[in-house]
Design brief:
About 30% of the residues lie in helices and about 15% in strands. It is α+β, with helices and mostly antiparallel strands. The model has no long low-confidence stretch (mean pLDDT about 95). The chain is globular, with a radius of gyration of 21 Å. The strands form four sheets. Strands 10-9-8-11 form a four-stranded mixed sheet. Strands 1-4-12 form a three-stranded antiparallel sheet, with helices on one face. It has a three-stranded antiparallel sheet with strand order 5-6-7, with no helix packed on it. Bound molecules: fe (ii) ion.
Length: about 400
């Protein structure tokens, strides 16, 4: 089956605690909102938050209650409404989805049944690869975490959003100085999941890739640099930027308009903008293996992850914890576009369902790496592959550039 997980299953109490923590975070994000805001459509690219909430609970019901526990669903017809592939985002508000009190009681009801099923399941002796090592629970946790980031994409567009809790730490991280680029020597590198914890099918199997020597930016591209590129080329600005009327730029997110901070990593750039910036700078986007090789040794514990900063740390922060090759901030702050299409690694096997990765393989989607401030810490690792359409900019995407060396 090609999956590698630790032989020892995580204790059930730990699973239950982590499920509770994930739900607490989901509810913290929506705490400042009323039902009208949960149901409102702000963008054809994003579901109303009520759909995300129902989908989180329904995905849990499908996998942890129905598939693992063999129990019948609470409301038979819901799975169809919350199928992400069958229901494109633009039409989700027209569906008879659960709302208000009904939605909240469905979320609680599913969770109660999930915990009942968990009591009775034997993760240690599991012959089912879905259960072995607690895989399906890890998958569910990652799913809820990842929907939190999608919800934060929508919250950027709200006319007013005051977070229930904020962490000022990342914005106050000191900025380092260093070379513009770091050099990674030629060699054969191992790419993909090491088999030491949860990973998605698209990160497997681990395989060797031969790379020529290259340089990669030490830090992510900054707002100030991107503004210069926009001025000189007339390229479209990143999403949420507007002219301030005096030749500068302001940025409006979560209902707050601020002067553009030139020292923060640029974010909400689409792939075309990222690629054009890199060429303008006399560089190029890194390939996916180049990005992963440069990220080796990066520590998710010293990175702006986990949502509560509600924005980026300055470019060059976290320099006390660089990747092995010397680049900093490879994890957290902004997803970084690569030049690579989202494709299967040699020997890929879909697990546990083709709709996670396989249906998206092909030249239509570009790969992003490294996670953003809106990514939960538990989700990200240096082998994690995200993908999106090249024209998308509502995601928390920026870039760093690479260059060939002679
Ligand atoms: Fe989902």
């Amino acid at each position: 089956m090609g999956i590698a997980l630790p032989a020892e299953a995580p204790p059930k109490e730990r699973i239950a605690e982590r499920l509770a923590e994930a739900r607490e975070r989901t509810m913290l994000l929506i705490e400042p909102l009323d039902d009208e805001q949960l149901n409102r459509v702000y963008s054809p690219l994003l579901s109303p938050l009520a759909w995300d909430l129902g989908h989180i609970a329904n995905f849990e019901e499908e996998w942890l209650v129905r598939r693992v526990g063999g129990l019948e669903p609470m409301h038979g017809e819901l799975a169809r409404l919350y199928d992400a592939i069958e229901n494109p985002r633009a039409g989700r508000n027209e569906l008879p989805i659960l709302r208000g009190g009904e939605l909240r009681s469905y979320m609680r009801g599913v969770r109660a049944r999930t915990l009942e099923v968990l009591e009775g399941v034997d993760l240690d002796a599991a012959a089912d690869p879905l259960l072995r090592g607690g895989f399906v629970y890890e998958m569910l946790l990652a799913h809820e975490h990842q929907h939190g980031e999608t919800m934060l994409q929508l919250l950027q567009m709200f006319e007013r959003y005051e977070p229930a809790r904020r962490d000022p730490g990342p914005a106050a991280e000191p900025v380092s100085v260093g070379p513009e680029m770091v050099r990674i020597e030629a060699g054969e590198v191992e790419i993909g999941d090491r088999g030491q914890g949860f990973a998605y099918d698209n990160e497997r199997p681990r395989h060797a890739v031969r790379l020529d020597a290259y340089e990669i930016d030490r830090v992510p591209v900054k707002n100030g640099e991107f503004a210069r590129f926009v001025e000189e080329t007339g390229a479209p600005p990143p999403k949420y930027w507007e002219r301030d009327g005096e030749g500068g730029w302001v940025r409006t997110v979560m209902g707050e308009t601020k002067e553009l901070d030139p020292l923060l990593p640029v974010v909400h750039v689409d792939w075309h903008g990222a690629d054009a910036f890199a060429r303008w700078a006399g560089k190029r986007l890194p390939t996916e293996p180049e990005w992963e090789a440069a990220a080796r040794g990066a520590d998710p514990a010293r990175a702006n992850l986990d949502q509560l900063a509600f924005g980026c740390a300055p470019a060059g922060a976290y320099a006390d914890s660089p990747a092995d090759g010397g680049a900093v901030q490879m994890l957290g702050d902004v997803w970084e576009w690569t030049s690579s299409d989202f494709t299967a690694y040699p020997g890929f096997e879909a697990f546990p369902y083709a709709e996670y990765s396989e249906v998206f393989f092909g030249p239509g989607h570009k790969v992003l790496r490294g996670g953003s401030w809106a990514t939960r810490r538990d989700v990200i690792r240096t082998t994690f592959r995200n993908w999106d359409l090249p024209e998308r900019s509502q995601i928390f995407a920026g870039l760093r550039c690479a260059r060939d060396v002679g």
